[in-house]
Design goal:
mainly beta; 10 strands; Alpha-Beta Plaits; 2 helices; globular; 10% helix
Length: 222
């Protein structure tokens, strides 16, 4: 199980693409977010560096509960006369955001289809065993920048049984696999959460960087 990783995140949010004043969250971690997290862990800034990598995402325990918090959102208005210097309270208003708590994940990584000289799996192993050999900056977050993780290590069977997200054309869970940051176009996939104890090969998702022809909102379509 040297390609099984345990990840603990006490509080996070995965905002849906259509979320505005009310920031809804996906209840499960999107593969696109997990991929970005792994790149951040190894200090890689190029999103295309490990295209072809395969990821599998599993949950320990039940689906994380969704809570709603009240936050103050600032709206900035600009003009040539004032150059944006407005009283912040004048353009602030309350808004709601959904968050997930006590998220415990198991991730599998397969770099056999990558074109990179050093695959992502090898870089993850280096980062976890000899972190002094990698160069990165900032906190390690899953999702938004404030969602700091407690840590990541190799998975142990004592961590608990895993329920895997598996590809399912009729599944009720729609998640982004890849988002083009320039065009906001993305690829979405439908999933189900398996109840089986054994690993299911349908859990593998390939990060290939191929967006769909049009933007897809909220993972409601494939």
């Amino acid at each position: 199980m040297n390609n099984w990783f345990y990840l603990d995140c006490p509080c996070t949010s995965f905002p849906r693409s259509f979320a505005r004043d009310y920031k809804e969250t996906y209840q499960y971690p999107p593969p696109s977010t997990v991929y970005g997290f792994l790149l951040s862990l190894v200090g890689e800034e190029d999103m295309t560096a490990h295209l072809g990598v395969q990821l599998a995402i599993g949950l320990i325990g039940q689906a994380p509960p969704i809570s709603r918090i009240l936050r103050k959102q600032r709206h900035h208005k600009f003009s040539k006369q004032h150059l944006g210097n407005y009283p912040t309270s004048q353009f602030s208003k309350p808004n709601f955001q959904e968050i997930l708590t006590d998220l415990k994940l198991v991730l599998r990584v397969d770099s056999s289809q990558e074109l990179a000289t050093i695959g992502l799996l090898d870089r993850l192993s280096i980062a976890l065993t000899t972190p002094e050999k990698i160069r990165r900056f900032g906190g390690l977050s899953l999702g938004e920048s404030w969602a700091m993780v407690n840590g990541m290590r190799l998975y142990r069977e004592t961590d608990g049984p895993v329920r895997w997200l598996i590809k399912d054309a009729r599944g009720l869970i729609g998640l982004p696999v890849w988002i083009d940051r320039t065009t906001t176009r993305g690829t979405f996939q439908r999933f189900s959460l398996t109840e089986a104890a054994d690993f299911d090969d349908r859990a593998w998702v390939t990060i290939n960087g191929q967006p769909t022809a049009k933007p897809v909102k909220g993972g409601r379509k494939t």
